[in-house]
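Structure request: Serine hydroxymethyltransferase, Candidatus Magasanikbacteria bacterium GW2011_GWA2_56_11.
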Amino acid sequence: MNKIPLQNFDPEVAGAIRHELARQESGLEMIPSENFVSLAVLEALGSVTTNKYSEGYPGNRYYGGCEYIDIIEQLAIDRAKQLFGAEHVNVQPLSGAPANIAVYLGLMEPGDTILGMDLSHGGHLTHGHPVTYMAKIFNFIRYKTDAEGKIDLDHLRQMALEHRPKVILVGYSAYSRDIDYAAVKQIAEEVGAITIADIAHIAGIIAAGHMNNPVPLFDVVLTTTHKTLRGPRGGMIMCREKFAKILDKAVFPGFQGGPHENVIAAKAVAFKEALQPDFKTYAKQILLNAKTLERKFREYGYRIMFGGTDNHLLLVDVTPQGLTGKEAQLAFDKAGITLNKNMIPDDPRSPMNPSGIRFGTPALTTRGMKEPEMELIAGMMNEVVEHRADDAYLLGVKERVGELTRRFPLYPELAR
Ligand code: DSN
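Returned structure:
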């Protein structure tokens, strides 16, 4: 076995990791699906549990030597149940897209109809976008938000009555409002559809009790664990007991092989963190910070989609300012502010050069930033848009970004 430390054995990889650490520490991370995990989560993620094969589930594995792996996976399951009030939990999905696929394959037959949100209205690729393989297997019908950016429940009901879907899917990746799960459940019951919620973006906020929780109402709830939940990169499925067997089988052996137990160990640690009282404070601050950005962007005269935000993110149309989402993203990169270009509802532009930008507060909030910093950041963002063609100006903003982030150290304990 190689015993040489990473830095000595592979300085190229070690160097790139060090630079990535510096990039994360010195910039403003505003991609709403990103966050910073704790050292305890990192430690579990980098543990020897990565060496172990463990196909099957706790107490029922295909391999020997799983006694400690079983403890870890059961802890993750029990903590997730406690966090969300779930009847059954599967922590093995490798990430959000594999979790979605396993659920589709477990619940539906090829050709079955599923009603999901249009990508440009805040939905997700895996919710039936034509570029995905799932769209070739299942009949996705896409609903949209109304002119004010709200989910039009009457329209959703009409579509459900017309198409009689096997599944109704809610939960989005660029939508900034809360969801009336009870109303969607009522529509699903009327047409006999299974309800699925994909809460990947807002799981941490739901776990903290600051947004509506679909778990007690819906048949199946999917999430990633690395966004507002602040765990390792991974996925999770929660469901009613009656779907437990079929979905466990869909994950393994239906779709995946051996689970990544180091990631599951890190999920267990993150769930323990999310069960602590200070996680509620953290999640509340995410929302307060997003509201502060909303207020400032409104003052600056930006076109905020969906009429504002109830969660951690904002979707803003920048074309009235005379630039595209792609141009804005590039200018923000130059200023040390990381966010992403994004389609707006019924965007006339293309996904690679759309009209909007999407940004959010989970990672900044993890650093300890609050309302005063959000005001500063909104001001700098507005300057970036106004001076996007002036590289020297953007460099000046980057220096101010550096001054701000130095006041909120991220991983001072890590070697550099
Ligand atoms: N890529 C994630 C996001 O940014 O929303 C979702 O898969």
